[in-house]
Amino acid sequence: MRKPSAVSLLDLDVELNEVCDFIMFLFASIPFFVVVSWGRLATWSQDTLALSPDPDFRPHLDDRLALHPDDEPWSHFKPRHTIEYHDCYDGLKCARLLLPLRFAQKGSKEPEIAVALIRKPSRVNITDSRYGGVVIVNPGGPGASGVRFLLENGGRLQQIIDADTDPEVGPPNTRPDARYFDIISFDPRGVNHTSPQFNCFPYTSSRHVWSYMADAEGFIGSSNTSFEQKWSRYLSRSATCMQRVEEEGHDSIAYYMGTRSVADDVVAIAESHGQWREAEARKILKEDPTATQLVGPERAFASTKWRRNNEEVLFWGVSYGAVLGSTVAALNPGRVRRMVLDSTVSPQYHFNGTLGDTLTHADEILAQFLHLCRKYGPTRCKFYRETEDAMHRDMSSVISRLKHAPLAVPASLHRGPDSITWTDMMRLVGQSLYHPASSFPLLAEILQDIFNGNGTSFANHKATKRGLSVEDAQEGLYNLSPKCKLDGPYSPACSRPNEWLEESLLGISCGDGGFGGNMTQDQFRPYYDLVKAQSTANGDIWAEWDMMCAGWTAKTKWKFEGPFQGDTAHPILFVGNRLDPVCPVEDAHRLSSNYTGSVVLTQNTIGHGILSAHSICTDMAIKAYFQTGELPASGATCEVEHEPLEIAYD
């Protein structure tokens, strides 16, 4: 790790702090709209931080596995080679599990990673015969936080896969065939609370300044010069990241963030859970030999025994998580007991850096916005016109006007002055395609306001997405802390938790895929034209993410590129929406043909991921699959309870 010179950080700390304060206060008033496809990070009360940490553990050691001191509650947990759970987040369990950096070279002197695990406990004791095992979930991204996903969706997932009956109601012999599951998710390598982290900015302040400037430059199609500007900007970040890789050497996490490594982590988590299950069962039965339900202690011991090197995998992966799941299944077909792959993207597109038919449905979903707006009228859709043609005309007018003349918005009491740009609007349109039920009402409201020449609602929306608040700057949160000065730039103490989200995505997608390396602008332009031709609604966002790989030369060293096929121990259930902006259900059908006995269930709606809508039919089909292994009929389709804009979204 590079250390700051005594002159640059210790003698000038007052000046640096004052400069950081001033710069951050200025930028705090600028709304910052970050391109992410998942919701706001869940919060927790101080009561949940009443933990039971190891009294001998120093949580902020300056080493590869250290976390930011404010990364609560994770910085209190000591990483261990076996799962040791701690209470966290009001009723959940958390642990940091040590796993090999390189599974192919495991050894006592080999470097390790500390994976952040979070578990929503089963509603029955693990010694209960109704205990169904552990379902491991991954939300995709790539680079999305599994911890965050479980905090936001754990209750719904458990409601879907668990038996309908309350395990606490009735005598113990009620529904002995019912099954209740633990649900585990995790932050993949380099992501969020898992360490080591891959961070390409020396300080929080430098990251925010770079990000504000990138945002101001607009999408690569926003002007005649934006393509070259963004290419240069992403090259600058990649060059910095590659410097970090060179400094860290062959042990850099950037080489081992790829899909194959994380697939091995999934199997290792299943094995570690089996080891924990056996130890926990012995502990429970020692304290209370009558703690079993329906079976005696001997059978309880047998059912909870760790099946070393043969633990089954129950998995639910979404989007890129389906690439991860199909990799697990191809490498370990005999372990697959249950696997739901939701919103499947073709693995070949991910690893080859090709577009395929990825964005085929995006413009159709935007057309559905206009159709549903007219169908449900002005009480549900503020952009209502009497005909879809009129709505299309006025939406095109709004977008065109913003491209030539951004809309000025004066300041309010809670944000600074702002300017609504073409990039802002295209970003909003593209993101609205992922979760139409929640996004279409907002899109309609903002389109109508901009049509009327009023950008206040959009500016307010952007302000809620910014990465820095005035209060943060006023409180000096971005000053260099004593720990940051001691540990030096790029250390965990110099960045706020999970700021490196884009580096995580790049480490996985650029490391695995065909973009990056020595790719030139002339080589990328035809791909950009292809993306734009496939989707006007989502093409600029998609191409921008791929351009971020420019100059990225740290390719994954532990890689699996197929074949993606197998005769799994139990058939896979593929699910997907009829129209998905980035993962067409046609990809699920193609991949399903490679896995023996698997079927595809289509949810008749629009959006990304089946959780973006509510369908009792889909929920019941997945429940039956986890409860008994029963698959829906080949080619089955499930209706949803409500269309987007049909009812007010809560």
UniProtKB/TrEMBL annotation:
The keyword Hydrolase applies. Residues 538-638 form the Peptidase S33 tripeptidyl aminopeptidase-like C-terminal domain. Pfam families: Abhydrolase_4 (PF08386). Keywords: Hydrolase. InterPro entries: AB_hydrolase_fold, Pept_S33_TAP-like_C, Serine_prot/Carboxylest_S33. One of its GO terms (molecular function) is hydrolase activity. The keyword Hydrolase applies. Belongs to the peptidase S33 family. This is Peptidase S33 tripeptidyl aminopeptidase-like C-terminal domain-containing protein. It comes from Lophiostoma macrostomum CBS 122681.
